[in-house]
Amino acid sequence: MKALRTRSQERILNLLKTTKQGTSAQDIYVELRNRNQSMGLATVYRSLEALKLEGLVQMRTLANGEAVYSLAQQDKHHLTCLQCGMSIPVNQCPAHALELELQATHKFKIFYHTLEFFGLCTQCQLAHTAEASHS
User: Fold this and answer.
1) Whole-angstrom Cα distance, residue 44 to residue 41?
2) Could you give all domains of the chain from N- to C-terminal order, each with its CATH number?
3) Structure pTM?
4) Is 93 part of any known ligand binding site?
């Protein structure tokens, strides 16, 4: 059964369909205002939460603590640098078989999963090594 969605939820879904990467609730709020479809920031957050519980939107927390939202079309995997915040998408999924097993074993409906590794990118490693050698 398809859930009835509010006009606000539909506007947010339509906006997310046009974005290539995750976007913050604040950016969604600003972009909707720019499109003359403004709504309150609290409404943006409530709508995102409802869409997330429906399995249509996924949330990812960046290294800086900011939450970004995107359509839950596919599983997302990243290498994220703790220093500069750069995030590199990883296309292979080592957890797919585990997801299927967990879904069957626990009778749990999984909408999506995320897998994220945190560390230092090449540039930040070089900078860190250079700083350490000057100390």
Assistant:
1) 5
2) 1-73 (1.10.10.10), 74-135 (3.30.1490.190)
3) 0.65
4) no
Closest to 56 in 3D by CA, of 38, 43, 69: 69
- Please tell me the distance from the alpha carbon of residue 125 to that of residue 23, in angstroms, as a whole number: 27
Of the candidates 131, 74, 120, 124, which has an alpha carbon nearest to the alpha carbon of residue 99?
74
E strand segments, the chain: 57-61, 67-71, 76-81, 87-89, 114-119
Rounded distance between C-alpha atoms, residue 10 and residue 85, angstroms: 31
Ligand-binding annotation for 121, yes or no, is yes
Model confidence at 86, pLDDT cuts 50, 70, 90, reads: confident
The token pair at 93 is 């999924």
Per-residue model confidence as pLDDT tens digits over 12-69: 999 999 887 889 999 999 999 999 998 999 999 999 999 999 889 989 888 788 999 9
Token duo for residue 31: 């972009």
Closest of 79, 98, 89, 93 to residue 22, by C-alpha:
89
78 belongs to an annotated ligand binding site: no
